[in-house]
Amino acid sequence: MKSFETAGQRLLSIPQAAYYLGISSHTLYGWVSQKRIPYVKVGRRTMFDKKALDKWVEEKSVEPLEFPALI
């Protein structure tokens, strides 16, 4: 699969969004059908707003627990 240039684009296609997120297109299709990820319908095309994806990733991020230092 060739790499996609996403720097100048706001809306990404399924292959571009999958590449951007580091997942397979198949996984992304599943998440769309389950409404687990934000997407935009442009006519019949399913597109992804890069800003919404970044926000979604940030919201899904899990912060590590801090443990006291062992001496």
Treating each run of at least 4 consecutive H or I residues as one helix, how many helices? 3
Mean pLDDT: 90
Low-confidence stretches: none
Q: Major sheet, described briefly? A: 3 strands, antiparallel
Q: Approximately how much beta-strand content do the residues carry?
A: 5-15%
Number of strands: 3
How far the N terminus sits from the C terminus, by CA atoms, comes to 49 Å
Please give the order of strands in the largest beta sheet. Answer: 1-3-2
Shape: elongated
Compute the gyration radius: what is it?
Answer: 16 Å
What series of H and E elements makes up the topology? EHHEEH
Task: Give structural notes.
Helices cover 39% and strands 14% of the residues. The chain is of the alpha+beta class. The protein has helices at residues 14-21, 25-33, 50-60; strands at residues 11-12, 40-42, 45-49. It has three helices and three strands, in the order E-H-H-E-E-H. Helix 1 (14-21) crosses helix 2 (25-33).
SSE inventory with pairings:
Elements: E1 11-12, H1 14-21, H2 25-33, E2 40-42, E3 45-49, H3 50-60
Antiparallel strand pairs: 1-3, 2-3
Please describe the structure with a list of short key phrases separated by commas or semicolons.
71 residues; alpha+beta; three-stranded antiparallel β-sheet; 3 strands; 39% helix; elongated
What would you say about this model in short?
This protein has about 70 residues and is an alpha+beta fold. Helices cover about 40% and strands about 15% of the residues.
